[in-house]
Design brief:
Blueprint (H helix, E strand, L loop, with lengths): L7 E3 L7 E4 L4 H13 L23 H14 L3 E3 L2 H6 L11 E3 L2 E4 L7 H10 L9 E4 L2 E4 L6 E4 L7 E4 L7 E6 L3 E4 L7 E4 L7 E2 L2 E3 L3 E3 L12 E2 L1 E4 L1 H43 L1
Length: 281
């Protein structure tokens, strides 16, 4: 799996990064097999109908995509489920964007008590909080089977740390965009962006997913909801590849500096010999 090549659209003409969806190939087969082991018999999360070989893994929902994110990170460190920020960053490259929806690697946690309150409390606990005054995006969560209304609970995993960001842009419906330094930020007036929709109640724990090309939604509280248009959105490691590129650039710069130093040394040696010859005459 370490040499797995994600089918998808390159963000730029070179293949760094690739934005695609989980398909039922070697990676998708293993992912669904592991999911079905954990949630056997719970067909709100486990798959009762298996996709055809080469077809997209459909029926995205929150626990499925959180599970798949942990699985692909464990299996191949170069691949992960897309974050909300990556949806905005790579918006034009998202395959089947108009006709699909996709849950991200994150959930939205709001200040007030509300839907999925047990999971809201658990998400806050996992980031070291018992309350919040502002909306949060929580990432890096895993899931495991649980005897509750949802059939799962949220957990930490050894493959990616749980983290959170304060998300003031989740306080109202508005256009947002990706900023390379700040992540997701509200758009200024007349600035291009993508709509994000939030619950006016500012309550509970909710999904954070892309709905077609309409925008991002943080409103929904049915974490188990799915249909055939759902996708598992993947990105093939822009961070890791960027790091590798930085290492390569550093190596080339070191080689350049070594070559320059060698040329200078040869020049100085030749100059010294020339001076010796001149003085000898």
């Amino acid at each position: 799996m370490n040499n797995y090549q994600l089918p998808g659209n390159p963000v730029v003409p070179i293949q760094v990064p690739i934005v695609g969806n989980l398909v039922y190939d070697a990676l998708g087969q293993e992912a669904i097999a592991r999911l079905n082991e954990e949630f056997k018999g719970n067909y709100s999360i486990a798959y009762k109908t298996i996709p055809q070989i080469g077809q997209p893994v459909a029926y995205s929902n929150v626990p499925r995509n959180l599970f798949f994110n942990q699985f692909v990170r464990k299996t191949n460190s170069n691949i992960h489920v897309s974050s909300p920020a990556e949806f905005l960053q790579y918006w034009p490259a998202i395959p089947e964007r108009d006709t699909t929806y996709a849950d991200t690697d994150s959930i939205s946690v709001f200040p007030k008590k509300g839907p999925n309150e047990d999971l809201r409390i658990e998400a806050l606990r996992l980031i070291g909080k018992d309350s919040t005054k502002v909306p949060l995006i929580v990432s890096g969560l895993g899931v495991k089977r649980a005897d509750n209304n949802q059939g799962f609970t949220l957990i930490e995993s050894p493959y990616v740390p749980v983290s959170f960001q304060e998300a003031l842009y989740l306080e109202r419906d508005q256009k947002v965009r990706y900023d390379p330094k700040k992540g997701i930020v509200p758009c200024k007036e007349n600035e291009d962006g993508v709509m994000i929709y939030i619950p006016s109640s500012q309550s509970g724990l909710r999904w954070l997913h892309r709905s077609g090309s309409v925008g991002l939604y943080a409103r929904g509280d049915n974490l188990l909801g799915w249909d055939e248009g759902g996708r598992v959105p993947l990105v093939q490691d822009p961070q890791g590849r960027a790091k590798n590129l930085a290492v390569l650039v550093n190596q080339l710069e070191q080689e350049r500096d070594s070559q320059i130093a060698l040329i200078k040394a040869k020049y100085n040696l030749a100059r010294a010999k020339a001076m010796e010859i001149m003085l000898g005459q």
